[in-house]
Amino acid sequence: MTTNRIEKRIQLHAPVSRVWRALTDYREFGEWFRVKLEGPFVPGQVARGHITYPGYEHLGWEAIVQKMEPEKLFSFTWHPYAVDPDKDYSQETPTLVEFRLEQTASGTLLLLTESGFEHIPGERRLDAFRMNERGWTEQMNNIARHVAETR
Question: Which one of 10, 16, 27, 116 is CB 3.0 to 4.6 Å from 95, fit for a cystine?
Fold first, then answer.
């Protein structure tokens, strides 16, 4: 098992356009991801907000939007498992999160990749990888529910 890259895939029974909206509309993203964002996603800009997931409400959320290729690729960089509010993570190299969409006969295949864990400081690398590995499994289920329940 590699601890440098997380890969998840899920078949969603919704059109690519619907999944794209769930990923890139900051309000919809916030609903299923459990974060209240301050404003829209814009490539090259920081997206900020506060986590609404129970037990983590005291934490901020921040990512830099990298790419938004309509209905194909949405990506951002962030500091994974940055859960100590007293620690400055800004000097760490962030990981890259990519959501890729592929149209299928029954809807959309969503492929998620988070890479770059090898650049996380050694003392927190394994925890960050393990927590995000679990977290992405949950988030894939969250987006599946979201696109199934909302149109």
Answer: 116
Ordered by start, the domain boundaries in the chain are 5-19+65-149
Residue 50: both structure tokens together: 């506060």
Cα dist. 102→67, 86, 114 in Å? 16, 40, 18
Beta bridge partners of 107: 104
Tokens standing for 92?
């760490």
Both tokens of 7, joined, read 């890969």
Q: Which residue matches tokens 């959320």?
A: 61
d(CA 38, CA 143): 20
5-19+65-149 to CATH, choices 3.40.50.1240, 3.30.70.3550, 3.30.530.20, 1.10.1530.10: 3.30.530.20
Please give the biggest Cα pair distance in the chain.
Answer: 48
pLDDT digits 0-9 by tens, 44-93 = 999 999 999 999 899 999 999 999 999 999 999 999 999 998 899 999 99
pTM of the full predicted structure? 0.96
